[in-house]
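re: ur question from yesterday

yeah so i grabbed the chain u mentioned. its 129 aa long if i counted rite. heres the sequnce exactly as i have it in my notes:
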Amino acid sequence: MDSLVTTGLVVLAGILIYGFRAPILAALRRFDQRNVERIAQERSDRGDRFAHYKHTLHLAEEQVEEVGEFTTSDARTGQPVKRYTFEGEQFLTRDEAEAARQRAIIARARQFYEELPAALAHRRKETLH
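ran it thru and got these structure tokens back, copy pasting raw so excuse formatting
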């Protein structure tokens, strides 16, 4: 009886995998494509002396929130207008909000480089003992 249940479960799993093969294969292809792109990026970074700064900016950009968009009524006309928000501050145009976001990204990256000597010194102390 156990082998019948096991065989049934294996057949059911095979049917499910076959039924969902397109999304599974698509996910595997996307995963493989990201790996190929990452490897190509690593190869190109070996010759780029500014690659470290680019990676730091990319990581800082991931840590900073996106610019939000909302619709509100204009104080003078009462008409609906789009406004943009970043870190709780409202901006009239997306360009102003994006400029504030870029300043925050650069500040975060600069903070990383300011803290780097202390972190490296602490790391050296740990490896020496």
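noticed a couple things. The chain has a mean pLDDT of 89. also The chain is about 70% helix and 10% strand.
anyway ttyl
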